[in-house]
Task: inverse folding
């Protein structure tokens, strides 16, 4: 099923390009198989061209740019092969305020078909949630959870402004 | 398909039986450093069959069993149960509700349950195969490891592309 | 010179214990040479006991606890062998609000003798600074710096309240 | 001893000659993702003699030379100058002010200067030896790498303990 892999790979590559542009506001990104004759064993090379900058190896990118590029690739994979759920543990740690906003919009776009569980310290990311699970250790060494419903169902939220 | 509930008992810092009622859409897990957020992510991986202790940040299997605090003794067992809604029929099992349970005892003995009936770990892993779900897949991104997706090494991202294919 | 190393190591160990307790509000921490007969080649093992919890390998610690432990070790080394400057690049990324506060107080304690250059996205950490260097890319791909003096000299700041 | 000024010209994203007047005490470097903050830390390491490209996040030596943008051509040289106050006499050089400069040309040629006089990289490295300062030391913590201090491997932390001893 080398051809199945190649077909999936092509889809990931095209989604990656599109989502990268969406997150970075322009530029280009590509993912290449270094050995196309042996796709399952081949190394993969990611090349990225942030808007306004020159194409470079991803090693020269900043911490935040790398995190955002990895997020673009992850969601490209989701678009190619949807998963019903996704657990993200502090993937927003390196992002500045404006990139956090872009990240949250991307998550929102996928949230109709994906159940997201996002661990975060960031207030903006928290604002995305319908439910908040607050984990505490009132008794030291022992975890407890308090859950808080933040929003009504998305359908109601959509209708609400017209009710006013 | 979506998760309906996650129950932890004796798993890492969850000394007391704790239940998360899960909802569709976006949920956020928040709290101070060291309070147990990533342990929840670990519990999901573990109940789905994760065997690599490095991924669970431990050295031995029994590192996931609550090992005590100033005021509590270590527990003898860790247990995690994940209940899912399968009305979409995504999982190849003729039930609209599926629950998977994993237990580990200090002796090293493991138990697995599918809808409360004993099964093998293999049965759980095979249930999720090809769905993009499962411990070793791209749907669970560990803290500090998002960068690995960019690694050139095929082993690092192998499962992602294989899974997606 | 093995004995010089052992002596420095002992000092680092004792400072590490003390600074860890200061940052975590209690508990214990230790750093051990696994092969004391061959200190320069030996592996080092760090064991940590956060207050209220049980002693565990540092691998089980959370992301924030690990960062704080590493910071304690770094400052223990500074206390043993002071360096006139220190450049920290986003070491506060994994810390929650209350740990950021403890981190900033620690930096302040050392700042009489150490020139700190701290790269950060965190507002609380920024408040520590006498000078802020804002880096921008108004022209895409080209960095520029704007510097803003935030405080008068520390001595003056100490006197200021009495001026009112 | 403290840094008085850092000047960058053609180093990574600093296409224009840029100068930071540095002060004692605590300074913060802030700005959005990718604007050049870590590049400043790289410049300090580089002028102190760093040779490992991995540490500077590059693959070849010339990766530190400004390689162009949409509106600018690549430059032919990278230059960084660090001026220090040495009135404490901490550095073994009979000057109260010391400036070190490093240049790299696309040809691969390197130049080093100590108080504006040409010198070898070795002279700069030896100047800082034993002071706990220098590219390969515990005074410069790279982004995302604070965790390495906890690594059991001696190589990872070797220089720290050796330096401190
Ligand atoms: N088997 C165990 N028994 C008891 N406590 C444990 C066990 N395993 C891990 N822990 C504790 O769980 C805590 C780590 O929890 P976790 O990694 O979930 O924190 P976190 O909420 O993700 O924090 P951060 O925001 O810093 O990432 C550690 O303090 C550790 O001591
Ligand atoms: N030789 C070079 N020529 C031009 N630009 C370069 C060069 N080397 C690196 N860059 C650019 O510098 C940027 C990275 O800068 P830097 O790592 O300093 O960001 P940062 O401010 O630390 O961001 P973050 O907050 O995300 O860590 C990248 O966008 C990269 O393209
Ligand atoms: Mg965590
Ligand atoms: Mg950076």
Result:
């Amino acid at each position: 099923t080398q051809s199945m892999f190649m077909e999936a790979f092509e889809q990931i590559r095209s989604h990656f390009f599109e989502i990268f542009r969406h997150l970075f506001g322009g530029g280009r990104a590509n993912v290449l198989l270094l050995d196309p004759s042996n796709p399952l064993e081949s190394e993969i090379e990611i090349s990225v061209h942030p808007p306004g900058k020159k194409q470079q190896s991803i090693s020269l990118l900043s911490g935040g740019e790398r995190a955002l590029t990895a997020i673009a690739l992850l969601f490209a994979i989701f678009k190619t092969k949807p998963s019903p759920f996704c657990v993200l543990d502090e993937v927003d740690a390196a992002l500045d305020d404006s990139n956090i906003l872009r990240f949250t919009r991307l998550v929102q776009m996928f949230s109709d078909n994906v159940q997201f569980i996002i661990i975060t310290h960031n207030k903006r990311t928290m604002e995305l949630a319908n439910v908040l699970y607050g984990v505490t250790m009132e008794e030291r060494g022992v975890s407890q959870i308090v859950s808080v419903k933040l929003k009504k169902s998305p359908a109601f939220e959509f209708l609400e402004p017209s009710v006013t | 398909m979506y998760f309906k509930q996650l129950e932890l008992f004796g798993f890492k810092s969850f000394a007391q039986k704790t239940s998360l009622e899960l909802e569709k859409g976006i949920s956020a897990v928040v709290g101070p450093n060291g309070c147990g957020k990533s342990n929840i992510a670990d519990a999901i991986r573990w109940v789905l069959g994760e065997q690599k202790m490095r991924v669970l940040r431990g050295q031995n299997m029994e590192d996931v069993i609550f090992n005590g605090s100033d005021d509590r003794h270590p527990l003898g067992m860790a247990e995690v149960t994940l209940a899912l809604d399968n009305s979409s029929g995504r999982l190849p099992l003729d039930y609209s509700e599926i629950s998977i349970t994993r237990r580990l005892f200090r002796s090293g003995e493991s138990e697995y349950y599918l809808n409360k009936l004993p099964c093998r770990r293999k049965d759980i892993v095979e249930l999720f195969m090809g769905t993009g779900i499962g411990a070793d897949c791209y749907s669970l991104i560990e803290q500090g490891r998002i960068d690995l997706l960019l690694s050139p090494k095929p082993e690092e991202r192998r499962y992602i592309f294989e899974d997606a294919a």
